[in-house]
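Lab manual, section 2.4: Encoding a predicted structure.

Procedure: take the sequence of the chain (488 residues), apply the prediction step described in section 2.3, and record the output as structure tokens. A sample record is shown.
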Amino acid sequence: MSKYFLTLLAFTISTVINAQNLYPKKLDNCITTQFCLDCGDIKANVDKEKFETLITSLISTNNLKGIKGRVMFQILVDSTGKGCVLSHTDVSDNIISRNIVMALNSFDGFIPAKSKEKTEQRASFNMSFDIKDGTMTGRVERVDMDAFKKSFDKPNSPEIYNKEYVYKNENLKNYNITVWNSKNSNLPDNMNDHITIDKSGVIWLTTDGGLVKFNGRKFENAEQNITEKGKYFSYYAIETDNENTKWVYGKNNIYSYNDKKWTIYDPKEIGINGAFKIINNPKTDEVFFCSDEGLTIYQNGKWSNINKDKIKELPSNRVYFAKRDSKNRIWIGTFSGSVMIDENGKATSFNDTKTILKGQCINSMDEDENGNLYFSLFEYDSKPPGQVNRNEGIGIRYADGSMKQFTTSNSGIPFNHTNCVLYDKKEKVLWISTDRAGLVRYDLKESWENYHPDNSEIPTSYISTMTFDNNGILYLATRQGLVKVERK
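Recorded output:
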């Protein structure tokens, strides 16, 4: 094992950017949904005395003789001050780096970030650890956002963890792939994390530069105009309801826009000031807001809430995803497990079952015309911690009630962590987005296809989410712009 650590120059952060793993050694043991990068009027930091104690302990418990170098660590700190290492620069995974990770993950001296005197839900910041002459020093580092964005504004090479399946991609030739980015259009920023297409066919995107809409020809700024944005404003979720109203989660507020005016909702009245995801349920005319406060429902101008006080089977109030199916059942994914509430209000916690959903958080869902349900899965408590290709993949609940999980070990899926699943009613196939392996096409039989920058016009291996337009054309929100996948 090399004695030298991979070094990286430090920069200074100036603005907010959406969630990113900064460094090459990625650790998937943190809840990474919607965090901002070194944001806040008061940035995340450490208690100096406690940090000096941590450094002293690391020096005494590690053999530093003959080792020289620097490792950068990206640390995620939540609103309670709990920290978790997201990534670092030591690709050799030296034992000292692993020991620093363990120490930081159990460190109780993190100070959360604040904006306008309100604690940020999750913010990441960087620390450097230098070893020289048998001793160790550590300090907080800030990153130049312009330099960071420039380094990320390029295609991500795919990480294919499935080494057994041979991808023939026979259907790739049948699609026209169109990409809009900041170089070939007036799209202000390539980092597009959320997308919705309204009833008029207008595409709405959250970008790292704000909120934009696209009519197929040009992008226009679509910022809400009733709240001063301030220095650290960003948008984290968006959805269109049955009335063509756009719902948006901005900085600590829920907004709606009816194509005439913006409305802001008082958190004291609706019970939430943010959302992990906003999901429309067309058949019941409900809009779901998934947040730390449970599942908040907007219907016919009224707000209601489902939480642990009302549904004891709910493993956590931290709801990441929820959606109704055609049988009026609500499927809920929380950061501590998944639940189904049937049409009679009876709840089933899948942590109490032996199904494929045990230990999993449903993070997206779609349904076909036969009542089969398709899930993308997130293993919230991976064993061992830090495992990259977790026991996730996708799950299918067939109409007869049976379930099956598809992973890299039993199918052609290229990587187990999936962001979104969409059933294509025209082609009778399943589209799957990943954050490392690009776009997956599954014909629901035996054929899996994988499209990414190395074999197609798909511009990146990181696809945040997907949606269909009114004509069934697939659109992708990616970290390299807006992508359209249209059958020829």
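Check your result against the sample. Confidence is low (pLDDT under 50) at residues 1-19.
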